[in-house]
Amino acid sequence: MASEIEISPADARKAPGKDQQAAGVGILLQIMMLVLSFVLGHVLRRKKVYIIPEASASLLIGLIVGILANISDTETSIRAWFNFHEEFFFLFLLPPIILYPLIDTVISGFSLAPKPFFSNFGAIVTFAILGTFIASIVTGILVYLGGLLFLMYKLPFVECLMFGALISATDPVTVLSIFQELGTDVNLYALVFGESVLNDAMAISLYRTMSSVKAHPSGQNLFMVVVRFLETFVGSMSAGVGVGFISALISFEIHSCSLYSRLDIDNLQNLESCLFVLFPYFSYMLAEGLGLSGIVSILFTGIVMKHYAYSNLSQSSQRFASAFFELISSLAETFVFIYMGFDIAMEQHSWSHVGFIFFSIIFIGIARAANVFSCAYLVNLVRPSHRRIPPKYQKALWYSGLRGAMAFALALQSVHDLPEGHGQTIFTATTAIVVLTVLLIGGSTGTMLEALDVVGGDNDSPLASVGTVTNFDGRNGYIAPPYNEESSSGNKIKMKLKEFHKSAASFTAIDKNYLTPFFTSQNGDEDDEAEPFTSTRSGFHGQSPYSS
Q1: CA quadruple 362, 363, 369, 372: dihedral sign
Q2: Element (H, E) at 62
Q3: Which of 156, 206, 363, 374 shows the greatest Cβ crowding within 10 Å of its Cβ?
Q4: Rounded-to-integer distance, Cα 486 and Cα 119, Å
């Protein structure tokens, strides 16, 4: 009997080989789908087929492969080859997805110059922080009321707030690529981009706060919930800013060595490039290790490194940083959309709760409207009439709220955080919402922009220079206010907002006079000498990161 169950040495040697073969086949399959996605995306972009964005193409490729696997009865094998864990997403795929848009936008200067972004920074923060909070709460309350009225699957109130938080994370990569192809007002582009970058941090902080409340329901009052949220957000921000300043200081010392010593320049450039790539990941892992939010940390590390560390890099290091983050971000984002399509066909979803999906989509649209239009009203309170965000821009902002990688990853995590059935329902609904928004909204973005008349060939009022305040005519857009613009209204809300603008102007002066000279190799005036580019409605024409 013992000889019948005994494993021979030959069989023992074959087992690892089988595992290696299966792993090799899985990696080969993933590479083939990535190659197909990039090639198909290039063809669609070259043919200007906006109805099928690149993200939609990647999602459809994953869906087709998953369907073929089911038909050919190889589901078990392919599932073993193509496994996906949320830890892998959060620790490896998410950092470049979050970091690259910031690095590319403010470093390479191709997608967007610094001036439109920072001149609209107050509005961006309002949409991303206050707006995301409003959207999360409104979505959670509506989903909870829908359950009470038997319109949809009923979830506890805290779980509804968790769902509201995770589904409020926007990912308008598809929309922004079409914005850039068709040509839109740079201020609209800056608002959509800036909100998407900052609101991911807000959404994940809200989700983790609600998850903590769910895990420890006793002794949690509103005050402790707010304290927990502030602890996570402020702590993560502090960690990110601290790592960013350390990076800037080290890069400044390396730059000084290259100027005033006889050290090998090539080795120094290699060192500064490696450090510039590693410090954001160091910030992310530090925050995660401390139980904080790596997303918030890496976001503020990227902002600080952009503003201070970048100017200390050599030109070759700048090119490398932009190319590196673009490469890994493209691979990570494409892989996530492929997996989402693959997951729809392979996983056991709770498709029985169609009402939850249907009403969730409606509630998300309502919450998005509450976010955009209420925040736009507050922003317009402190802007003169010729500088207010026009209604057509507000509609474009509302329409641009696609859901993507962040919402999908948080929903995947909710399967483990919530009881069986609840998490699966949220995961199924989130997957369906991501797919529908990417396919329908992403594919109809071009039509939406044309209908709102925010694209076209009108070049009567080009942006003369990123060093000056943007100036558009009344029909095409609005003028982004400088930080020191005073409000003529005397009501209390406007006075408080005016004080905030003065504080921002004071920080700008401190940054220009003290921080920039201390942490960088340039003086505070050089930021205003940026390369000019023209863009209002005919596209983005910036200096490529690969130009000398």
Answers
A1: negative
A2: helix 54-71
A3: 206
A4: 14
